[in-house]
Amino acid sequence: MAIAVLALIVAVAALIIALGNRGGSAVPNSPAIGNPGNATFVAPNLVGLTVQRATSTASSLGLLVTVVHAHSAVVPPGLVIAESGTVPGENHHKGEAITLVVSAGPSS
To answer: Which residues, 6+ apart, have CB-to-CB distance to 40 below 8 Å?
Structure first.
């Protein structure tokens, strides 16, 4: 019985090695396979930053940034009120989209 289990383990290991050496991956675009184009990173909190700094930070991480403006009587104009598409502190991938909601100041 022990020999049969050992033979099964060896066969599975050989299959894994063979699949790993065929030049492709069984899971496309998986960072676990080693695709550097989809490397993960921990998303920073961009709320409270200036729109320029937040956009620069997000872009440098490979995020696709959209900026929308909303009136706020509390947050000064030009500062990020909210973000959507990423969760600060969680892992994300290059190429993901993020929307920054930026204060346009109080409405007239």
So the answer is: 31, 91, 92, 93
